[in-house]
Amino acid sequence: MSNQNRKVVVIGTGFVGMSYAYALLNQNACDELVLVDIDKKKAMGEAMDLNHGLAFSGSHMKIYAGDYADCADADIVAISAGVAQKQGETRRDLLSRNAAVFKSIIGPVVDSDFSGIFLIATNPVDIMAQITFKLSGFPRSRVIGTGTTLDTARLRYMLGEYFGVNPRNVHAYVMGEHGDSEFVPWSQALVATKPVLELCEESGGNQSCDGMIQISNEVRNAGAKIIEAKKSTYYGIGMAMVRITKAIFGNESSVLTVSTLLQGEYGRNNVYVGVPCIVNRNGVEKVITLSLTETEMARFNESCDILEGIFKEVQFD
Ligand code: NAD
Fold first, then answer.
1. Does the CB atom of residue 17 touch ligand 1 within 6 A?
2. Domain segments of the chain: what residues?
3. Fewest CB within a 10 Å sphere: which of 3, 81, 83, 146?
4. Active site includes 178?
5. Ligand 1 mean position to 176 CA, how many Å?
C-alpha cells in the first residue's frame, strides 16, 4: 500500500456508507473516494453532493461514483451495502438477505485485482466479515469487521461521564459479538492506570459495580435505542470506520476492537469476533490476548459459540 494516493471505495451509499464518506471528507482521511451502489443514480447524486462541499473543506479529495473496476488500485474497500436493521429485528434476521448481497459484491471486487484491505460494517458484522474472508480468500489481516469499535467508543464515553474523566483517559473494551452477547471485561478496565473496580471500592459508595453493570447494559442497548428513536444508526459507525481507516493509512499500530478471525488466540479458532487488535498499514497486525478472568472467559466463549452457530447457518452454494 502506497501513501501517495490514499484510495477508498465505499460499496453501499446508504446512511452508513455516506456518514463514513462525509466523515472521511471532513477529516481529510483519503485522497480519492469512489462511491458504488446497486442504485447507480443514488451513488452519482451522493458524489455530486459531496463534491459541492469540497470548496468549504480543507480537502482536495477526488470524489466520484464508480464501479467494481475502480477497486483494482484501491487501498480500502469499505462495505456497508445491505439492508438496515428494522425496529424489533435481530441482527441475525438480517443474515440471509445480507449474505446474498455479499455474494454479489465480493466476487467482482476480487476479480478487479483488488489487493488492499476489506473493511466491513454491514450487520451482523462479525458474520459478514467472515463471509468476506471466506469468499475473498484473503488473509485474515486484510479482512476487518468494525466489530465492537463503536461499542467500545460508547463505553469509554459513558465511563468518562460516570467518573468525570476525559474518555481518552479511559481504557476499557467491549469484546465479543457486535450484538447481544457482547460484554465488558471489567478486570481490564482502567481510568489512567487505575482499575475502575478499585475506583468503585474507594469511592465510598458514589461509584459502584451496579453502576458498571448499568453502563454495560446501556452500551449493549444503545443501538436499539437509537433505532427506536430515529430508525437507524449511522454517524457513530461512520466515524468508527474513519478511525479504523486512519489507523491503516497512518500505519498507526493503534489498538482497536475490530472483528478479526481468531487462529488460536483465546483458545478459539475460525471465528470472527471483536477483540483488541493492533491495526496498521497491514490491516490487523496482531490480536492482543488480554488476561481475562474465568467468568470473563466464559462470557467470551459463549459469544464465540453463538457466532460459530450463526456462521454455520450461512449457505455458500
Ligand atoms: P441503507 O439501506 O441506508 O443503505 C444500504 C445501501 O446498500 C443502499 O444504498 C442500497 O442501495 C445498497 N445496496 C443494497 N444491495 C446492494 C448490492 N447488492 N450492491 C451494492 N449496493 C447495495 O442502510 P444503512 O443504514 O446504511 O445500513 C447499512 C448496513 O450497516 C446495515 O447492515 C446496518 O445494519 C449496518 N450497520 C452496522 C453498524 C455497525 O456497528 N457495524 C452500525 C449501524 C449500521
1. yes
2. 7-145, 149-311
3. 3
4. yes
5. 22
Give the whole-angstrom CA distance, residue 40 versus residue 26: 24
- Ligand 1 centroid to Cα of residue 17, in Å, is 7
Fold designation for 149-311? L-2-Hydroxyisocaproate Dehydrogenase; Chain A, domain 2 (3.90.110)
Instruction: Give every strand in the sheet of 62-65, ordered side by side.
Output: 62-65, 32-36, 7-11, 76-79, 117-120, 143-145, 259-263, 269-274
**What's the mean pLDDT in 234-251?**
98
Q: What is the CATH number of domain 7-145?
A: 3.40.50.720
> Per this entry, what is the length of the chain?
317
Atom of ligand 1 nearest to the CA of 121: 41
> Strands 190-191 and 117-120: what pairing?
unpaired
- Angle at 115 (CA atoms; ends 80, 95), nearest 5 degrees: 30
pLDDT-wise least confident of 80-94, 137-151, 157-171, 252-266: 80-94
Q: Higher pLDDT residue, 4 or 108?
A: 108
Tell me: pLDDT of 314 over 90: no
Q: Which atom of ligand 1 is nearest to the CA of 128?
A: 32
Whether residue 92 has pLDDT greater than 90: no
Phi and psi, residue 36, nearest 5°: -125, 135
CA dist 89 and 80 (Å) reads: 18
Handedness of CA 264, 268, 269, 271 (dihedral sign): negative
